[in-house]
Write a structure and sequence with these properties.
154 residues, mainly alpha, 2 domains, 75% helix
Length: 154
């Protein structure tokens, strides 16, 4: 039972749920007619606790995979490359801007990390980048860094 990954996952999410519940209550619940800032957090935390208790109960009753079996066959090189690419993305995001960084990240992921046909990768990267940019900037009115494209997008 000590090596049961489902049990440990359930306990982890139970701890997160308890923290979210406590943070919501600490922020202020308000009343049902006038919910306070912590109202949604409190009930989300309660839901997280209930779901994690379900996972823990299922893990105790029927067991689960061992912790070691979860990591068997993991392609660590690819994991490290993705983490590195995300760090580079985060470092250049403000200076270079959303569009160039996101386009480069998606292309690098689809060309080198998990190779896809070049035409498909390019099409998906361009449509996804500009689709998300359009949705965030035009529909949701969220400002994204323009970076090197500030003269064109401004």
């Amino acid at each position: 039972m000590i090596r049961n990954s489902e049990l440990w996952g359930g306990l982890f999410w139970l701890a997160i749920g308890v923290f979210v519940t406590w943070a919501g209550r600490d922020t202020g619940l308000g009343r049902l007619s006038e919910p306070g800032p912590g109202f949604a957090l409190f009930w989300i935390g309660i839901l997280m606790c209930a779901l994690s208790l379900g996972v823990i109960g299922q893990a105790i009753v029927s067991g689960g995979a061992t912790l070691a079996s979860l990591w068997a066959g993991t392609r660590w090189r690819k994991v490290l490359v993705v983490v590195g690419l995300l760090l580079v993305y985060g470092a250049g995001f403000q200076a270079l801007g959303f569009i160039p960084c996101t386009l480069a990240l998606l292309l690098a992921l689809m060309w080198f990390v998990d190779p896809v046909d070049g035409r498909l990768a390019t099409t998906v990267a361009v449509i996804a980048t500009f689709g998300v940019w359009f949705a965030l900037t035009k529909w949701l009115k969220i400002q994204l860094p323009a970076g090197i494209l500030s003269g064109i997008l401004g």
